[in-house]
């Protein structure tokens, strides 16, 4: 019941923000999720022996999220230049400077610097790409004003629907038909049959729903749905790998019945980049 009530609170907030508020509101939502997830990631990194400063690391996550959101946003009047590479170089310098500032050699110096950079890339770039998908070329500039087109909202909600369908299909197909473990050392409850069900239903969801959002052929939408479903499974397993390595069950207890923010967005973190590439270069 707690899990259901939490979902009933979260879903209207997320969908309402995407649908009724300006594109910047979706970015703010993504930014809040990125910072909260980074706090959980930092705790896991600490359990694995890597020291990641909260303020510096969260700032870098926010910077990369913002840079990805505004990167080459050619739908807006006066295109914002792509500064993702600048943010990455800044992160490299900051991570190195933070290690030097400790003033002592240590076996974990490389792990600390790498954990900071990886956390920013792992969280900031995918969530920034997701926010770009909501805005991106979903706006049209005219000489007098900017018109917000509805397809930007539909794009994000379509991705959300495909991931939800795929995750749900994995669960129910796995319960009904699951026999062979998919990755027993990482996530004992996941099965090969459940993964196949998730990919099949996720592919079908994108092939069907994508026709109302994109002009791409059905076979391309089907490939996109399969890629999103597969990468969602990989993202889920990767976060499970981090948690199991750190010896914890959930990334936090922030969301009653659901664990932490990172537990809720783990599939998105691997699926959003390929969706961004499709929207940016293919659709």
Which descriptor suits the 3D outline? Answer: globular
Strand order of the largest sheet: 1-2
| Class of secondary structure makeup | mainly alpha
Number of helix segments? 9
In angstroms, what separates the terminal alpha carbons? 40 Å
The percentage helix is over 70%
Strand content: under 5%
**Which ranges are low-confidence, i.e. pLDDT below 50, for 5 or more consecutive residues?**
1-5, 74-78, 137-150
Order of helices and strands: HHHHHEEHEEHHH
Number of strands: 4
Output the radius of gyration. 19 Å
The overall average pLDDT, rounded, is: 86
Biggest sheet, in brief?
Answer: 2 strands, antiparallel
Describe the protein's architecture and organization.
This protein is mainly alpha-helical and 283 residues long. The chain has 9 helices and 4 strands. It has a two-stranded antiparallel sheet. A two-stranded antiparallel ribbon has the order 3-4. α2 packs antiparallel against α5. The N terminus is likely disordered.
Provide a brief overview of the structure.
With 283 residues, the protein is mostly helical. It has helices spanning 2-20, 23-47, 54-70, 84-101, 109-134, 151-177, 192-209, 218-246, 261-282, and strands at residues 139-141, 146-148, 181-183, 187-191. The radius of gyration is 19 Å and the shape is globular.
List keywords for this structure.
9 helices; 283 residues; two-stranded antiparallel ribbon; mainly alpha; globular
Task: Give the helix/strand layout.
Blueprint lengths: L1 H19 L2 H25 L6 H17 L13 H18 L7 H26 L4 E3 L4 E3 L2 H27 L3 E3 L3 E5 H18 L8 H29 L14 H22 L1
Antiparallel strand pairs: 1-2, 3-4
Helix pairs in contact: 2-3, 2-5, 3-4, 3-5, 4-5, 5-6, 5-9, 6-7, 6-8, 7-8, 8-9
